[in-house]
Write a structure and sequence with these properties.
There is one protein chain. It is built from 10 helices and no strands. It has helices spanning 3-19, 26-33, 37-43, 47-68, 75-92, 94-102, 113-116, 121-135, 144-163, 171-187. The longest helix has 22 residues, at 47-68.
Amino acid sequence: MSATAERLVGIAREILLAEGAAAVSMRRVATAAGVTPMTIYRHFANREALLSTIADASFAEIAQRWAARPAAADFDTRVTELLDDHLDFALGQPHLYDFVFTDPREGARRWPDDFRAGGSPSMNLVAAALTTGIRQGALRDQDVWPLALTVAALIHGLVQLFRGSRIDLPEPDFRALVHQLVGKVLDGNRA
């Protein structure tokens, strides 16, 4: 990617972080970059291509950051760490979280094929942690993908309820609730 394209992506991402994906337009990015809108079209076919670049880079960054944490040998500790990382991201960067995980968008990964094929950098980490749990004997032997989807759906749903003020708890108590409920799902799958 050229330096100009990287700069345009950076500006678009800043807008997205501050205001959400709906606020990102080619004209607004061009104005912020001090270039004409046509300059952007030399690098990105359309707004969706620009947003797709942001999504791909964001997922890679999320997965890299989460994977960079030294993996705990203990399954339950690893799950706690991954869950804390996910909640830090969801609550700390809500617009980016919505964009990459819940907003409808072209090219978004779909269940089951994209996930089973390893196409989701963040879900791959969940599946890897669950696979470790199976290998260590903490979880019963099973297909990890439905369990990974169940855990992810629970977390995403709880985050949406909390951010929508449907869960009326202070953030530390909300985090404890998420840990408790994910623990219940995992307890139901113990070996």
